[in-house]
Amino acid sequence: MLGVGAAAWKSEYEGVSGSDELAVYPAISYKGDRFSISGTEADYRVLGDGDSGLNAYVSLGMGDGGYDASDSVVFAGMDDRDASIDLGVGVEYAFDQGSLNAAIAHDVSGAYKGLVGSASFSSSQKLSDTLYLTPSAGFYYRSSDYVDYYYGVRDSEATSDRSAYEGDDTLTPFVGYELFTVLSEHWRISHSAEVRWLGDEITDSPLVDRSTVWSAALNFLYLF
């Protein structure tokens, strides 16, 4: 499927806007027997078939795109933080009540040079012949290397208003949903939203000014 999407979000970083404007992007989705693409992630089914199995995947931007020093005054005088490329494995197990998912990945781009992971439960509900709702809940894992890179302040970056900071690994719980609508034989609309509660290792950073963040997206897709 190909289409266009728009996203809004609330950033945890002090002074970084997100919800004030929309980011528009190309929406790409493909699902084959073993290979699939969804957004910035590509998966290959190593073991299993259907909705259960073991996947290898590569993902762009697990650091949520990083940041530039010019994005906010809180970053003034700091080095930019780059988005990452992560390589990992994921396990899916589907049963009558829903699906359990777990994944672990390592940065292979040399950005934060650490690990990220996740575990979640989701359950797809058919609301009508053309409308499907999939709520989900789980947590994200971020290693100390990740926290230090994206939320830490190096000694060389510390100022009188921004103390040096070195974090530890952390868990971030989340809840979310996806709403999928079939408009016609070829056209689809998907809407998703998520709320995250950031761990103390992130919220204690002098770069961060909130403990709860959210994101939402709306995609218009054409099915070939």
Automatic annotation (TrEMBL):
GO CC list: cell outer membrane
Keyword line: Cell outer membrane, Membrane, Signal
Keyword Zinc part of the UniProt annotation: no
Any one Pfam family match given in the protein's UniProt record, by short name: MipA
Subcellular location: Cell outer membrane
Keyword check for Signal: yes
Superkingdom, taxonomy of origin: Bacteria
Biological process per Gene Ontology, one example term: peptidoglycan biosynthetic process
Family: Belongs to the MipA/OmpV family.
Full protein name: Outer membrane protein V
Organism of this sequence: Hahella chejuensis (strain KCTC 2396)
